[in-house]
Structure formats: structure tokens, C-alpha cells
Amino acid sequence: MNNVLSVSGLTKNFGKLCAVNNLSLEIGAGHVFGMLGPNGSGKTTTLGMLMGVINPTRGSFSWFGEPPGHEVRKKIGAVLEHPIFYPYLSGQRNLELNATIKECSKENISRVLDIVELTTRKDDPYKTYSLGMKQRLAIASALLNDPTVLILDEPTNGLDPMGIAEIRELIKKIAAGGKTIILASHLLDEVQKVCTHFAVLRKGNLIYTGPVDVVGSGSETVEVGADIIELHEILKAFPGTNSISRENGFYRVTLRESFHGRDINRYLFENGITVDHLVTRKKTLEQMFLEILSTKN
Ligand SMILES: Nc1ncnc2c1ncn2[C@@H]1O[C@H](COP(=O)(O)OP(=O)(O)OP(=O)(O)O)[C@@H](O)[C@H]1O
Ligand SMILES: [Mg+2]
Q1: Most distant CA atoms of the chain, gap in Å
Q2: 208 and 267 in one domain?
Q3: DSSP element (H, E) containing 287
Q4: Domain that holds residue 262
Q5: I need a labelling partner for 100 at 20 to 30 A (CA). Which of 62, 111, 147, 292 fits?
Q6: pLDDT confidence of residue 237
Q7: How many Cβ atoms from other residues are within 10 Å of residue 124's Cβ?
Q8: pTM of this prediction?
Q9: What is the mean pLDDT, run by run of 10 residues, along the chain of 297 residues?
């Protein structure tokens, strides 16, 4: 497997507080990896260690199979918490300064402005930018040296729904260009919409890691409504039924693994029943996250 990042036993103690505890995980090339966890669960501390701005107490990690170092870090772009730009300088000018600091060519500036869709506003002072534009400029700056990996800490924090949607599209666009992206978030639907893989941290402990596409592939729940007295009995007799509850005037049937909404639809049809209502509800990441958090004590 082509791993971009391998983390082994990474630990950070702040005095008595263990912010990150014995974290091990792998991130593959091209993945969009979401780190989920409540406030204070260790996401920023983990990203800080991976970026070399926080010293680990114990453990190790390697980027592209190499130990962390100056050369390796050039392949990583990051937006950690509050990026600093000069308020009275334009977006363009700020990027020029950053390009000088990062020792990369100024030729890249128009390309990254294009990616984050700030080309038309590039000559306006930074202080006139909206929060979403400021965030996009920070991402542009992280992309200046064309990194292989992009790290984002809470990229949509404080943005309105429109700004959130723009950042989400931007992340997808960058990922489609082949970059590996690691992002910390506590927005579950954001992770579900943009990530290919995710991990869940709680109090510094990794309690789950896996692909996002398993979310919703677990057992399905189907809501069924039909004007038939025997409906409950008929649903109970369906071989794919695991359990049935009554909710909002409908029967809520949790199916056994490998049964789907269409199976129950066919079964009802074969039994001469026409339904008024049949809706399949897949497990959302939110349900899965809450389950993970509540079961792994
Ligand atoms: N420099 C520090 N000194 C002492 N404790 C710290 C320091 N930085 C972080 N912590 C503690 O480490 C724990 C993890 O913090 P961290 O910022 O990594 O969490 P987080 O998951 O990023 O949270 P959030 O969702 O609020 O951003 C918290 O209990 C925090 O108070
Ligand atoms: Mg944080």
C-alpha cells in the first residue's frame, strides 16, 4: 500500500494532561482523511505534531516513508488555526510575501488564486475580504509550493452555509487534482460529504478509523406505510426483517444485513400490497459517530 503518512504510537502530554494518547494510523495517497472528534479531543495537537510545530512526547511518524524533516515538509501545505496576513495589503501582495518566505516561484500565484476563485478580488486589501475569502486565501497560500499533502484544521469554522459549501467544493476540487488531504473537523456531514476516510478521536484516544463509504452501507431502515390492518404481521413475516418499530404513523423496519429497501418493496408487491410510503433511511455518519462515541468506553 502506498502510504503518505504512517503514525505509530504518537503521544503528547501537556503536564498531566494527555492530549494525544498512543495514536497509530495510516493515510493512503489520494485519500481525503477527516479527523473527527469533540472539542479538546486532540485534533489540533495531532496536526501540530505532524507539521513539526509541536514536539511529540513519544511515538513517531513518517511522511512518504521518510522521517519528518525539512525536505519532507516542503511537500506538505497546511492551514492551521489562524493564518496571518497583512490587512492593508492585497491578496496578491500577501501571497507574494508568502511565496518569498516559502522560497517558491511567484508564477504559482495566479494559478492558486484561480483554484480558490479569488482572481477577480486579488488586488483588494485583505481586510476587505469576507471570512470565506480569507479562508480561501489561506488555502491558496498553502498550495503555493504545490504540496502533495494539504492539511486543514477546521476549514469551515465560522463560515456561513454559502461559505461552507464553497470550501467544500474547493476541497473536492483539490482532491480531484490528486492531492492527499487531511482535515480536522467536528462537522459530521462535512466529513461525510468530502472525505474518503475518517478517524474518530475522543480525549486523545483513537476510537475508530475506516473508510467513509461503509457509512450507510450497514443495515438499512425502511419506513413503510400502507392502509392495511395486517401490515405489521406481513412485515414481521418478511425474511429480511430484523426489528420493527412504530414511528410517525409508519412502520420502521430495520433490515438484516444484505437486505435492501427494494427487497421489501418486491415482497410487499408479491403479497398484493401497494404502499403509500416507502423510504429507505441509511445510517448517517452522525448516527454512526454517536454510536461509536457511546459504545467505546
Ligand atoms: N499548549 C497547550 N498547553 C496545555 N494544554 C494544551 C495545549 N494545547 C492543547 N492543550 C490541551 O490538549 C487537549 C487537546 O486539545 P486540541 O486543541 O488538540 O483539541 P481539538 O480536538 O483540536 O479541539 P477543538 O475541536 O476545540 O479545536 C485539550 O484538553 C487542550 O486543552
Ligand atoms: Mg482544534
Answers
A1: 75
A2: no
A3: helix 285-295
A4: 221-281
A5: 62
A6: 94
A7: 14
A8: 0.80
A9: 89 96 95 93 95 94 92 89 86 95 90 95 96 93 94 91 91 94 88 90 91 69 88 93 86 86 92 89 70 64
| The C-alpha cell that represents 128 in the structure block | 476587505
User: Which ligand neighbours the alpha carbon of 45 most closely?
Assistant: 1
pLDDT in tens, 151-201: 999 999 888 888 999 999 999 999 999 999 999 998 887 888 899 999 999
- Give the per-residue pLDDT at 295: 63
Phi, psi of 60 (to 5 degrees): -150, 170
> Contact, 136 vs 144, CB < 8 A?
no
The total number of structural domains that make up the chain: 2
Looking at the structure, tell me whether residues 202 and 229 fall in a common domain.
Answer: no
Residues within 5 A (CB) of ion ligand 2: 43-44
Cβ atoms 140, 115 nearer than 8 A: yes
Which of 12, 35, 44 maximizes ligand 1 atoms within 8 Å of its Cβ, making it the mutation to test the pocket? 44
Is the Cβ atom of 45 under 6 angstroms away from ligand 1? Answer: yes
286 falls within a domain:
no
Rounded Cα distance between 170 and 154, Å, is 14
Cα–Cα distance, 4 to 22 (Å, whole number) = 19
For 127, which DSSP code? G
Cell of 229: 390492518
Q: Is residue 275 part of a domain?
A: yes
Q: Which residue has the cell 503536564?
A: 15
CA–centroid distance, residue 126 to ligand 2 (Å): 24
Q: Judge if 116 and 64 occupy the same domain.
A: yes
Question: Which of 36, 43, 205 most suits a substitution to test ligand 1, by most atoms within 8 Å of the C-beta?
Answer: 43
231/187 same-domain check:
no
